[in-house]
User: Fold this.
Amino acid sequence: MSEAAENKAAKRKVILTGDRPTGRLHIGHYVGSLRERVILQNSGEFDDIFIMIADAQALTDNWDNPEKVRSNIMNVALDYLSAGIDPEKAHILIQSQIPELPELTQYYMNLVTVQRLQRNPTVKAEIKMRGFSEREESEGTPVGFFCYPISQAADITGFMGTIVPAGEDQEPMVEQTREIVRKFNSIYGETLVEPEILLPKSSSARRLPGTDGKAKMSKSLGNCIYLSDDEKTVKTKVMSMFTDPGHLKVSDPGKTDGNPVFIYLEAFAGDDAPNAKALFEEYAPDYQNLEEMEEHYRRGGLGDVKVKKFLNNVLQETLRPLRERRAEYEKDPDRVMQILKEGTGYAENVAANTLASVKRAMRISYFSV
Ligand code: ATP
Ligand code: MG
Assistant:
């Protein structure tokens, strides 16, 4: 590369982010990452935006259920498009269709120790959650699953991603990627770019809890409000949500800390929400903002039903435009597949360029210059 080309490459701003097609996307994905992606996409500040449907990664713990992974490709694509991802501005791609990614993974595997992977806190928590056994060989942790942080490093660097908008559970993954990049560059010469994670401002949106009050809303835990849930389903889920168990009578003082209903409100009608002011004006005009509502709840005199009704209105208002866009795209699945095909094709070209630079740097480009 010439010096000018190098400078240009160094300054490129590229987004890489994605989701596993293990189920429909939920409101945790929305506040944790999707909402931010759409804002960034529309900012016009990025040279390239890649949104990846991580089917190969989903197979690392769903290898015995390929149909689940396959059917969720369309669900996730519809979730993206309905959330406002614009295929004119962002490339949506399917991970397994890009063979350069596992090839990069293979070379990066030499740069990471088993011990380092073992202390990755997200991998640790996910191994526990999935019940992989430490003793039983046949029920142990699949090697593919154990190594998925390395394949994530290939995904990020394969597209030269510089910004990764994601939830808190992805922090250790991006850190692992940064380590791989530094090690690669120090051994083989300056080739890869170190990415940075972009977390939501409020902690509620970084890790939205489940409707059951469990620490994380997660497709695998079945405690989700899905972006594609209809109005009635959302309302039923909200009205049966877990709140402060000590708040029995309306007049009782209530706890807002750790109360999922208030955590959702923080994510959807608090500082992180672009339309918070309008939501209060329309649906809770007695309060200027969430802080005032929280104070009232803590003082006593504000009932759970009233707060849940407000939350329901907030969610319906947020989801309405998504439902309208979804209805349009659902009519035309061929168009959605075409969007995925084009996005994947574009992405493969970029990954092939990265792989060529990686191989050159590693001195294994025998037949090309
Ligand atoms: P699975 O249970 O299959 O791992 P998941 O619900 O954790 O599914 P992923 O596809 O692993 O979803 O995560 C996709 C993105 O959404 C990541 O950036 C992740 O940080 C973010 N995310 C997932 N769940 C939440 C949540 N509850 N709150 C905020 N962000 C989340
Ligand atoms: Mg996950």
Notes: The longest strand covers residues 14-19. DSSP finds 17 helices and five strands in the chain.
